[in-house]
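User: Could you check the structure of this?
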Amino acid sequence: METRQVRRAWVTGSLSLAISHAIAYITPLHEWTGFWLRGSFVVAYQVFFVLLFLPCAVWIARRYLKRPRSFLAMAAWGTGLGYLSGLAALLLHPLAQANGWDLFLKSLRLPTLEAVAALLWFPVRLLSYLIGAMTGIAIALLLHFSNQRLNGGRA
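Assistant: Sure, the predicted structure tokens are below.
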């Protein structure tokens, strides 16, 4: 039974993340990222974000499968974990470049408190907040309706 639940969490987390990214690509959300990050940096950021956030989405789905939670709670978990994944992706994405190690080390040099605030606020993470929230809500919706279907119409 546990293996089936883990598989269901992986499928739900992956599908929810795919739905959230599809929404981001058909709305201006993805274009905002392209404004702040250029060229191969956008691709590297997206790859790191997905690789870091997918296990978080699976973890959120497993939590919901153990005990269903409200849509607001799922959105809050998704938002928080999306922010942390976006922050980590923003720090790690220079590693995908030719001189990535140097760029990574330069990105860690934060000479002032304002630089730290700018790193924590950087507008690209608006996308990670929103994708996280959308993923959390999508997980809740998918699991709620699949549980209804599996239970013969009862939630």
